[in-house]
Amino acid sequence: PATHIRMIVSTWLAAMAALAYLCRLSISVAAKSIRGDLGLTEQQMGLILGPTFFWTYALAQIPSSRLGERLGARISLPCFACAWSIAVAMFGTVTWFPLLCGIWMVVGLAQAGAFPVATRTIAAWYPRSERALASGSLVAMMSLGAAVGAGLTGTLIQWIPWPRLFVLYAVPGVFWAIGFYY
Fold first, then answer.
1. What's the CA gap between 92 and 104, in Å, rounded?
2. What are phi and psi of 92, to 5 degrees?
3. Which of 7, 38, 111, 117 is most open to solvent, judged by the fewest CB atoms within 10 Å of its CB?
């Protein structure tokens, strides 16, 4: 039978998805400011936006999800969220292109394990007949996080320098990690 705690877990997982996509996609809105402030070329920014994140994300999905299975969701998801949050905050403090790439790779590494572990958690907590709603909520919040992240970044970057904005975006992920663990 459905339990109240399942809905709480689903809500936390959906919030994680929204936060991850907010952090992941806000960089594309801030790209022009980042390029201007750091003197990056379009090609360099393109490397950060594209292959640096996505190749790392793709190649790390299986090993990081395996790690998540071994550690369990209660340990691995907060670790993944803290890792990507700290990396997002650090991105705002770095000016050297190779280090920017390395930090954005950490974001990809940390987020790579989060979604397989979240879907595994849904599979473990929900009977087969009830998984669609929980999975749909997770995916819907990814899209919502991306949309909110784009709009929020576009609005806030007019008043807040992008480095501070990235630090600001990192804070909810750390609070999410603490809350989910408890």
1. 11
2. -75, -5
3. 7
